[in-house]
Design goal:
- The chain has a single domain, classed as Protein Transport Mog1p, Chain A.
- 26% of the residues lie in helices and 45% in strands.
- Strand 6 and strand 7 form a beta hairpin.
- Pfam families: DUF6517 (PF20127).
Length: 195
């Protein structure tokens, strides 16, 4: 049985699973933390951006993770803050690993996921395409606790293109729909269920 969070398959239509892994971020005397993660990408957007720019750009991606602590410590606000802060740092690192630059967390707020109170963090960054051209990107990560375990879901997508010369702006802009990208990402996040 998979330990990765469940997402209704109809919502993943058009997305491609590109990574599925189980990692142990840390294992110390008192507790072992295991993360079961899946990552999906939008291959159509990536192909369209590559055709317009000649660069394997960021497209958009969606990830889910089930973080398990064993033995399971009692629920507490301090533990929740610790895990939330840690995964927020890891998410920013994941964005940088995907080639995003100038990544910074810009806000944090409450977000309801199936009745659970999640912390939703927003990120801004850029993806350089060369010759001063870059895609501006926005990322979101929600973290919430269910029965002592933690679930997280989020992703990122391009919002607009910055091109001082204006040569690629129109062609790339036609591929971008940031409001739709955001709505679809939030719909996916809200649909995530504990495995």
């Amino acid at each position: 049985m998979s330990s990765t969070p469940a997402v209704p398959t109809e919502l993943l239509d058009g997305w491609r699973l590109v990574d599925e892994r189980t990692e142990t971020p840390f294992d110390v005397t008192f507790v072992t933390v295991t993360a079961h993660t899946t990552v999906y990408e939008d291959p159509d957007l990536a192909a369209a951006l590559r055709e317009q720019t000649g660069v394997d750009g960021p497209g958009r991606f969606f990830l889910t993770s089930h973080v398990v602590l064993r033995p399971q410590p009692p629920e507490s606000e301090a533990l929740r803050r610790l895990v939330t802060d840690r995964v927020a740092q890891d998410f920013a690192g994941r964005l940088r690993d995907r080639g995003f630059t100038s990544v910074e967390q810009t806000s944090q707020r409450s977000f309801s996921v199936d009745g659970a109170d999640a912390r939703l963090a927003a990120y801004e960054g850029a993806y350089p395409l060369g010759d001063g051209v870059e895609l501006r990107v926005q990322g979101w990560l929600a973290v919430w606790q269910v029965d002592g375990d933690f679930l997280l879901a989020g992703g990122a997508y391009p919002t607009h293109v910055h091109d001082p010369a204006g040569e690629t702006t129109d062609a790339v802009r036609e591929q971008l729909s940031p409001q739709r990208f955001r709505d679809e990402l939030f719909e996916l996040i809200r649909a995530v269920e504990r495995p």
